[in-house]
Amino acid sequence: MTLDVAIVGCGRAAGEFDDPAKANSASHAAAFSRNEDFRLVGCVDPDEKKALSFAAKHGICHAGTDLSEIIQRSAPDIVSVTSPDETHFSIAKQLLDGSLPAPRLIFLEKPACSTMVELEELVGYSLKKRIPVIVNHTRRFDPLYVAIKERFNSGELGNLLRIDCIYYGGWEHNGIHLVDIVRCLFSQEFSELDVLEKIDTEKGHDSTLTIRATLGEECVPVWFHGWIGQQYQIFDLDFRFSKGRLQIRNFEKELVWEKQIINDLGERVLERAPIGIPVERKRPIDQALTAIHAYCEFNCETALVGVRLEDTRKSMEVLWAKQELEA
């Protein structure tokens, strides 16, 4: 069965700048369009010209500025929310509170909301209405990180000793990716957060922070290094394990594993070695849609394990802790 999809927010993440001649975009519209299990039927944006242009580009029949009207007309199974961060809560709430025809699932861009009160309200609606809200923490769906988690759990990488991350574009907007994937990889929680640097961003309220923290009972040091995105964009992770060093560079375009060896002088050094994880792989958003289809078509609850709104609570708590840290 084909699942009908409406997209709320017709900007970059949705696919505003997609080139229809290219099939490799990571936007929501492109991912739904290339998957035969889904059909785009509606789109909403406060800018009517943008909504109509988006609809024309992606072959969508119902487009406009009024969420209620478009949901009524298109009756989607899935609603994909790709609007600006500060609107996520109000849109998700409207989709869940019974005032509109209920979708079967909501695919919500991160961050899901702005406060713990908002999060708990949305979780309450989601559970009451039995409408799952899936947060697009993309790296949880990425086969690369799935493989790294498996190798860590098997002992192949050794004990975790230190993590250094570099990011840009706001602690809440982009830092959430780092916080969430580290928690996911190692199944441990952060503590002892300390803000060391603050870089202003165009978002105003959402600064790019350099934060030092510890992870888990072993108090593994973790550094989130903020960077000035106006210079250029960086998203890197550097994991130091007892058996070697794993670097994920330039938005997962390069993966480097250096294993620990003993050289001819009896010194412990690092030597580059294969790790058997391909850099070329299925896009995370395509994996997310596979999970969404499995749930909607086959009622496969396990497909959504770890990616529901309620599963983001601990990651969001880390993000919001910065409010106390900056006070």
Summarize the structure.
The chain is of the alpha/beta class.
Description:
- With 327 residues, the chain is of the alpha/beta class.
- It is built from nine helices and 14 strands.
- It has helices at residues 28-33, 48-58, 67-74, 88-96, 116-129, 143-154, 175-186, 284-298, 313-326; strands spanning 3-8, 38-44, 62-64, 78-81, 105-108, 133-135, 160-167, 190-199, 208-215, 220-226, 236-241, 244-249, 254-262, 268-272.
- The protein has an eight-stranded mixed beta sheet with strand order 8-9-10-7-11-12-13-14, with helices on one face. A six-stranded parallel beta sheet has the order 3-2-1-4-5-6, with helices on both faces.
- α4 packs parallel to α5, α6 (143-154) runs parallel beside α7 (175-186) and α7 (175-186) packs across α9 (313-326).
- The N and C termini lie far apart (52 Å).
Tell me about the biggest sheet?
Answer: 8 strands, mixed
Q: What is the strand arrangement across the widest sheet?
A: 8-9-10-7-11-12-13-14
Low-confidence stretches: none
- What is the 3D form? globular
> How many helices?
9
Radius of gyration: 21 Å
Order of helices and strands: EHEHEHEHEHEHEHEEEEEEEHH
Q: How far is it from the N-terminal to the C-terminal residue, by CA?
A: 52 Å
> How many β-strand runs?
14
Give the strand content.
Answer: 25-35%
What would the average pLDDT be, to the nearest integer?
94
What's the helical proportion of residues? 25-40%
Structural class: alpha/beta
